[in-house]
Amino acid sequence: MRTTALARIAVGVVVERRKSRSSWANFLWRPVSVFVGSPSAAPWTPLGTETETETTAFYAGQAIVELHRTETANYRDNLASGSPALWVVLRPTASGASYELAAVTADPAEGEGLTEAGNNLVDQVSMPRELAEIVRRFVAEHHVDRPFIKRKRDSQALAHGMEGTNCG
Fold it and tell me: Second label for 155, Cα 20 to 30 Å away, from 34, 118, 137, 146?
């Protein structure tokens, strides 16, 4: 698949599986952290269990955070928020009993858009400092302020009930 990304950063994702108290689901899943790099562990390797809360942490696998020149304003806003975040997308497997790692993004607009996609589980995690610094350097190098230009309405189109069309 061809991409327009100018930077691609490998990250590892840790998710938590917690025993559910609901009769509708056996377990609740959620991403809990992301780290820069890729360990030698296989995806879905258990990292530890907390017996008291019936919680198990798993290394879910590797994803690639792509940085695009056209999204630098979104990255800048994310960094300026005071608590930069990543959005992790987990997709249900065919069996529906577990998930697979689908994506990780640093773009808040993309992350928000991914929450609307079917049965995917999308959640925010804190952006690691190391990744925040990479994103900060990317924004410094590639961001271009684009002035907002208010589009003028065509008075003839308005008179003829064609608002929203471009007639000249």
Answer: 146
Cβ burial of 93 (10 Å; 0-12, 13-18, 19+) is exposed
Query: Angle at the Cα of 96 (from 95 to 102), degrees rounded to 5?
Result: 105
| Contact predicate 119/24, CB 8 Å | no
Closest CA to 103 of 59, 65, 57, 58: 65
Instruction: Tell me phi and psi for residue 90, to 5 degrees.
Output: -110, 130
Q: Which secondary-structure segment (H or E) carries 131?
A: helix 129-142
For 50-106, the pLDDT digits (tens) are: 988 889 999 999 999 999 988 999 999 999 999 999 999 999 888 666 889 999 999
Counting Cβ atoms within 10 Å, is residue 71 exposed (0-12), middle (13-18) or buried (19+)?
buried
For 62, list phi and psi in degrees, rounded to 5: -105, 145
Q: Of 92, 51, 90, 86, give the one whose Cα is nearest residue 66.
A: 86
* Rounded Cα gap, residues 19 and 56, in angstroms: 9
Q: Which residues contact 156 (CB under 8 A, 6 or more apart)?
A: 167, 168
